[in-house]
Amino acid sequence: MSALVGVLALQGDFAAHARVLAQVGGQAREVRTPRDLEGIDGLVIPGGESTVIAAGIEREGLAAPLRDLVKAGTPPLGTCAGLIVAGRDHLGLIDLTARRNAFGRQVHSFEVDLEIAGLAGGRLRAVFIRAPWIESAGEGVELLAHVDDHPVAARQGNVTVVAFHPELSGDPRLHQQWLAAVPDRRPASQREPVADDVLGHHA
Predict the structure, then answer these.
(1) 170: buried, middle or exposed (CB in 10 Å: 19+, 13-18, 0-12)?
(2) Catalytic residue (choose from 80, 115, 175, 202)
(3) Which of these is catalytic: 60, 90, 139, 165?
(4) Whole-prediction pTM value?
(5) Does the annotation mark 167 as catalytic?
(6) Among 17, 90, 167, 175, which one carries the catalytic annotation?
(7) What is the pLDDT tens value at each position of the chain, 203 positions in all?
(8) How far is CA 153 from CA 16, 36, 110, in A?
């Protein structure tokens, strides 16, 4: 068995995250209602349109269950619009605010080899599409990466957010190291051993 990760599937590139999670040994479940949160070990809030995702969360009554889930210890990974949705202005899972479309519109999309604190294996090719950046962050937020002095990745407690699309880069290391840090709540008898070289620092 492997960790079961819920991927918020209200809008956006949730299917791409599911494919990467499967590639690195996880299982993915699409989350559309509070019932879909039952039994998951981790949560991905994907990119897309932050306003549409936030509206879907409210429509489906997911806001309070998502907050309770993270408060109880289930770690989330927010990417691109997921960073915005996880911040103060929406779910409040992490103490930061983001500027939407900070790097420009679709035609200004770009890729860059990004140094991310704690990510093993060197720079990660990061895909930025109508991406935000972190406008402000509380004292408890660790900033993990920057583009032109603008923070684009952060962590606070068990919450990790990035302003880019790691599911599109062809490099699964960020998902792999995040998944390695997801708590395994199953009985020891049901766990499979994980090779030491797969485990890394939380990214």
Answers:
(1) exposed
(2) 80
(3) 165
(4) 0.88
(5) yes
(6) 167
(7) 689 999 999 998 899 999 999 999 999 999 999 999 999 999 999 999 999 999 999 999 999 999 999 999 999 999 999 999 999 999 999 999 999 999 987 767 999 999 999 999 999 999 999 999 999 999 999 999 999 999 999 999 999 999 999 999 999 999 999 999 997 655 544 444 433 322 233 33
(8) 20, 27, 16
> Which of 107, 48, 109 is CA-nearest to residue 79?
48
CB 29 within 8 A of CB 6: yes
Q: For residues 102 and 133, is the Cβ–Cβ distance under 8 A?
A: yes
Q: What is the pLDDT of residues 20-37, one digit of tens each?
A: 999 999 999 999 999 999
201 is catalytic: no
Q: What domains can you pick out in the chain, each with its CATH number?
A: 4-190 (3.40.50.880)
Can 115 be counted among the known catalytic residues? no
Q: Which two tokens mark 184?
A: 């395994």
Q: Residues of 71-107 as b/e, b for ≥16 C-beta within 10 angstroms?
A: eeebbbbbbbbbbbbbbeebbebbbbebeeebbeeee
